[in-house]
Amino acid sequence: MSQNTKKGTVLSALMWASEEFRSAGIESYRLDAELLLSEVLKISRVGLYLNFDRPMNKDEKERFLSLVRRRIKREPVAYILNRKEFMTVELYVDNNVLIPRPETECLVEWILKNVQIGSESRVIDIGTGSGCIAIALLKYTPIKHIYITDVSEGALAVAERNIKTIVNDKQYTRYLTSLMDGINEWEFDIVVSNPPYIKRGELKELMPDIIEYEPRLALDGGERGDEIITKLIVEAHLHLKKEGLLIFEHGDDYNIDEGLINGKYELVHKGKDYSNRNRFLVLKKI
């Protein structure tokens, strides 16, 4: 640690960590330093500013140093803290699941504003990961039961943990499967998914925070980036009721193959993310 940090106050620790992160090329260097120091001291980020002159004890310094070293190696803060906020809900996350993104909140917000979901609606979340979409729908709509699927047992364990913690008055059915393979349930009102959609050749261009830590299965969309999406469109049609909705996230350069939907789906909505980029589609089964 620098001489300034050895002074042992909250301010000196925060300044040191911010500079270490900045030197390592981490864009959110100040925010990350605040989040990690808040975790160590068990106070809010605002509390840090109210306690700048507070001395840190040996255990706190060692714990903070350990977390800073992990972040310098580009481990995401969400994995270090084992939590990530989504739709104002704090989710447990680890490296079995993709870290929930704000882009996916745009998809969920559209559903909440535009789709009537009742207590008995039949909804399935494909590739649930942390369960962020399923949990938002369980929490903010009257639906009593939801179906979730994932190809990863580790991801399903995370989703189940979150459901039981956050919406323990609701029910769910889980499937360990790829997309909707082997699911003998039909007549769904909504099939929703945030599938892998990054082109395989572009994975190496991702930030180390992503490609070195987040599950490749949740990122790799095949050579063109639409391999999983194409399968999803085909499989969902078999399981949706007439006029049921397929809602899925996609890359900002995705163009749907009209041959996939002609005579099968009506394109209802092209959704944007917070950066005004094309981010999700809503299809209605004809």
Describe the overall structure.
The protein folds into 2 domains: 5-73, Helicase, Ruva Protein, domain 3 (Orthogonal Bundle), CATH 1.10.8; 84-285, 3-Layer(aba) Sandwich (Rossmann fold). Mean pLDDT is 96; it is low at 1-6. Strands 5-4-3-6-7-9-8 form a 7-stranded mixed sheet, sandwiched between helices. The protein has a two-stranded antiparallel ribbon with strand order 1-2. It is built from 11 helices and 9 strands. Helix 1 crosses helix 2 and helix 7 packs parallel to helix 8 (153-166). By secondary structure, it is α/β, with parallel strands linked by helices. Helix 7 (132-140) links the parallel strand 3 (123-126) and strand 4. It is elongated, with a radius of gyration of 21 Å.
Task: Give a quick rundown of the structure.
This protein is α/β, with parallel strands linked by helices and 286 residues long. It has helices at residues 10-23, 29-41, 45-50, 58-72, 77-81, 102-114, 132-140, 153-166, 208-211, 227-239, 258-261; strands at 84-86, 89-91, 123-126, 145-150, 171-176, 188-193, 240-249, 265-272, 278-285.
